[in-house]
Design brief:
Blueprint lengths: L5 E5 L7 E3 L2 E3 L1 H13 L3 E5 L2 H9 L5 E7 L2 H4 L3 E2 L4 E10 L7 H10 L6 H22 L8 H16 L8 H4 L4 H35 L12 E5 L3 H9 L2 E5 L2 H9 L5 E5 H9 L6 E17 L5 H15 L1 H10 L4
Parallel strand pairs: 1-4, 1-5, 8-9, 8-10
Antiparallel strand pairs: 2-3, 5-11, 6-11, 7-10, 7-11
């Protein structure tokens, strides 16, 4: 097998692996090509989605998988890994515009969900208006409102509503002039109760808007619970987010996650730190930022078939490349100085 051209499954994962017009570049590409030269093998790349990398190796359809692949117990049950080639972890990518309330989205959210908060106070307000409409009719019937029940009650409710909002002219100067003492006391007491209920309604609307704004404030891992978060399907970040109680939006490619964040369809993107940082400094410059400390620290490795004769040769090559200083050269080229 070693003398044959190896099949290398790769996936788009800037700055580890990038593809343009059939040409590949990136940290992991340059590292692998140095390893291949060290062990004397020829190869060809095959581009796949991340989710297919490990299954392709496990089914022996390819020899090796590259693509910022985290070494974990579940994967090691079906494939082998080289020595770690990169130490990483997860971080959070946010839109810089997250603290600004999107009026259109807020109105849409209120119409679909927020209105439920107003059902109870609105029913109370309607009940108060109905009660005081009846009381006004009883006190003012034949004097300030119609003698018959239905027109009189409606006129009483009408009077109560428009005196609350400060528009007595809407009901006419004669109608606004409550003539009986009981009618006046009823009107004043009813206005006070209605104002209290209206204050509750306004408070509920303000609380809804404030809550949406607070929900956009994400500073670290603990803030992800209950948030809509995009990440690549089948990755370690997906399983971690589910354990945290986040509302996970799985995507096939990271480009989809970035687009969802840009359109405010998700509140955050969680993925491998170097990939997010690279995006923030390049395509996402100006509108994205990476926040929080590194969490769920992990190592990347080269995926190999179980009991592959290449494993020992690759591991020795990795050690040789590290000892020669070339690994540090590659690291500085793609990530700058190590922190």
């Amino acid at each position: 097998m070693i003398n044959n051209k190896l099949k290398i499954a790769v996936t788009q994962a800037p700055p580890f692996i990038m593809e343009s017009n059939g040409e590949y570049s990136g940290f992991e590409i340059e590292l692998w090509e140095a390893i291949a030269k060290e062990i004397g093998v020829s190869f060809e790349y095959e581009k796949h989605n991340f989710q297919k990398l490990i299954p392709l190796v496990a089914d022996k359809k390819v020899d090796i998988a590259l693509g910022a692949i985290t070494i974990n117990e579940e994967r090691e049950e079906i494939v082998d890994f080289s020595h770690p080639i990169f130490n990483s972890g997860l971080r959070i990518l946010l839109s810089k515009n997250r603290t600004k309330i999107d009026v259109a989205n807020t109105i849409k959210a209120f119409l679909t969900q927020g209105w439920k908060q107003l059902i109870k106070p609105l029913l109370i307000l309607l009940l108060i208006l109905l009660i005081f409409g009846n009381m006004m009719w009883f006190a003012e019937r034949g004097v300030g409102v119609a003698s018959s029940y239905f027109p009189g009650v409606i006129e009483g409710i009408w009077l109560s509503v428009f005196t609350i909002i400060g528009s007595p002219n809407a009901v006419g100067p004669e109608f606004y002039n409550v003539r009986t003492l009981i009618g006046r006391l009823t009107l004043v007491f009813g206005q006070l109760l209605n104002l209290v209920v209206l204050g509750i309604i306004i408070g509920e609307i303000a609380a809804f808007i404030t809550t949406r704004k607070i929900r956009l404030n994400i500073e670290g891992l603990k803030d992800l619970s209950g948030k809509t978060v995009a990440t690549v399907q089948g990755t370690t970040s997906e399983s971690l987010l589910k354990k945290l109680g986040a509302i996970v939006v799985p995507v096939v490619k990271m480009e989809e996650a970035y687009e969802k964040l840009k359109k405010n369809e998700v509140e955050a993107v969680v993925f491998d730190a170097p990939i997010l940082i690279y995006y923030m400094l390049n395509e996402g410059a100006g509108w994205t930022e990476v926040v929080g400390e590194l969490f769920d620290k992990q190592d990347y490795g080269i995926g190999l078939q179980t009991q592959s004769p290449l494993r020992e040769k690759i591991n020795r090559a990795i050690l040789a490349i590290q000892e020669s200083g070339y690994y540090n050269t590659l690291y500085k080229k793609w990530f700058g100085e190590a922190e």
